[in-house]
Write a structure and sequence with these properties.
heterodimer; A: about 230 residues; mainly alpha; Cytochrome Bc1 Complex, Chain C; 9 helices; about 0% strand; globular; B: about 150 residues; alpha+beta; Rieske Iron-sulfur Protein; 2 domains; four-stranded antiparallel sheet; 3 helices; binds protoporphyrin IX containing FE; binds FE2/S2 (inorganic) cluster
Chain lengths: ~230, ~150
């Protein structure tokens, strides 16, 4: 008898007994659960660094939840943005916690993405047949940077403003396409309400949707190709 | 040994039941730790008094002339100065420069900030240092032997 399988299967039986039975009778969910969850055991060669993709995903889900909560009180208007962020921090009960989680989650997420990429890079895991997942991974990394870049403008502080001024100067200096890129980012000659509105739209709609899409692609590829073998 | 075994088997709660309720109890505590802040966040007016103005009261004879008293107002430190028998000033004690707590200097009758040396007079007006604006003032009045501080 496979000793290892005993645990998960017992757990499955209990879950099915408790609540999944309703679903199981209609959708025969037990089979799917067994195949996808309960008999799928992690290879033993995985270590702490193998966890960083999952940790990043977890933080991303936290960002979604705290981000939605922030959106309830945040006002994306140059006159009110800073005031609303101050109100979230100081007046709304537990607003400091929600904002703090979102702020630190954002910083941590960049760190964990980088550790995850480092593991893939130095482990040579990006090699065939997993090249396409390195590509989706890099795209996800760029989306994370995009989140940080657009989110940083939202509180509309001096730091936000000047960081955006400086960070749009850089693409503006590209030959030929620079000026066009810069005015596309800013929506005008300088950082204004137009910029805040587009950054907000990117931050809460476009980037989350794109990230979800790429995450699905990322995970499906892993499911299809399996976890890479030991180094 | 035998006696010990006996006491185990006669324990009113089995180990499994104990661990089980410990796990469920922790899960409930963790869930409460998420849902309580969430509820407070989403219902901001429910417990904070629904827009009622905050007041602070203290007996008049507890604050001597020339003296200052620290109190908490709107969840921030504030200062009540009794300038004379009937003259009172109530100010936020949060320095308008970078938010340190100012101290009252009785002899010079000035408010001094320990962080970067901002100086205010008794009414909160800036006398020197980096403070960009006066201290926030509150209304203080005397009502039948009691000092009442309210938002201006
Ligand atoms: C659906 C997902 C998200 C939503 C709805 C969302 C929403 C928001 C909102 C409304 C703000 C303004 C409030 C504030 O400044 O505190 C904000 C700020 C910010 N967000 Fe997000 N966000 C999401 C995901 C992310 C992710 C994935 C990251 C980074 C990896 C991120 C990084 C930031 C940063 C750096 C700030 C500025 C924080 C601050 O100055 O306090 N956000 N976000
Ligand atoms: S904080 Fe008071 S002088 Fe700077």
């Amino acid at each position: 008898m496979d000793e290892l399988k005993l645990g998960p299967i017992t757990l499955r039986n209990r879950l099915v007994l408790k609540g999944f039975e309703i679903l199981d009778r209609r959708f025969e969910i037990k089979e799917i659960l067994d195949e996808e969850v309960f008999t799928k055991l992690a290879p033993t060669h995985l270590g702490i660094f193998s966890c960083f993709g999952g940790i990043t995903f977890f933080i991303f889900l936290m960002q979604i939840m705290t981000g939605l909560l922030l959106m309830i009180y945040y006002v994306p208007d140059t006159q009110s943005a800073h005031k609303s962020v101050v109100a979230i921090t100081n007046d709304i009960p537990f607003g400091w916690a929600v904002r703090g989680l979102h702020f630190w989650g954002a910083n941590l997420m960049v760190l964990t993405v980088m550790i995850h990429m480092g593991k893939i890079y130095f482990g040579g895991i990006y090699k065939a047949p997993r090249e396409m997942n390195w590509v989706t991974g890099v795209a996800l990394f760029l989306l994370t940077m995009g989140f940080s870049f657009t989110g940083y403008l939202l509180p509309w502080t001096q730091l936000s403003y000047w960081a955006t001024v400086i960070a749009t100067e850089a693409p503006g200096a590209m030959p030929v396409v620079g000026p066009l890129t810069k005015s596309l980012m800013l929506g005008g000659p300088d950082v204004s309400q137009v910029t805040l509105s587009r950054f907000f739209t990117l931050h809460v709609m476009v980037l989350p949707a794109a990230t979800f899409g790429l995450l699905i692609a990322h995970f499906l590829q892993i499911r299809r190709q399996g976890i890479s073998g030991p180094m | 040994m035998e006696e010990a075994d006996k006491s185990w088997s006669e324990a009113p709660v089995s180990r499994r039941a104990f661990v089980g309720s410990a796990v469920i109890g922790s899960a409930i505590a963790a869930a409460a730790g998420v849902f309580y802040p969430l509820a407070r966040y989403l219902l901001p007016e429910s417990k904070s008094g629904g827009g009622k103005k905050e007041t602070y009261t203290v007996a008049l004879n507890e604050v001597h002339v020339g003296e200052a008293r620290f109190f908490t107002f709107k969840r921030r430190p504030a200062l009540l100065i009794r300038k004379s028998d009937t003259e009172l000033v109530a100010l936020s004690a949060v320095c308008t420069h970078l938010g340190c707590i100012v101290k009252y200097h009785e002899e010079s009758k000035q408010l001094l900030c320990p962080c970067h040396g901002a100086k205010y007079d008794q009414n909160g007006r800036v006398l020197g240092g980096p403070a960009p604006k006066p201290l926030t003032a509150y209304n203080a009045r005397i009502e039948a032997g009691t000092i009442v501080v309210e938002e201006a």
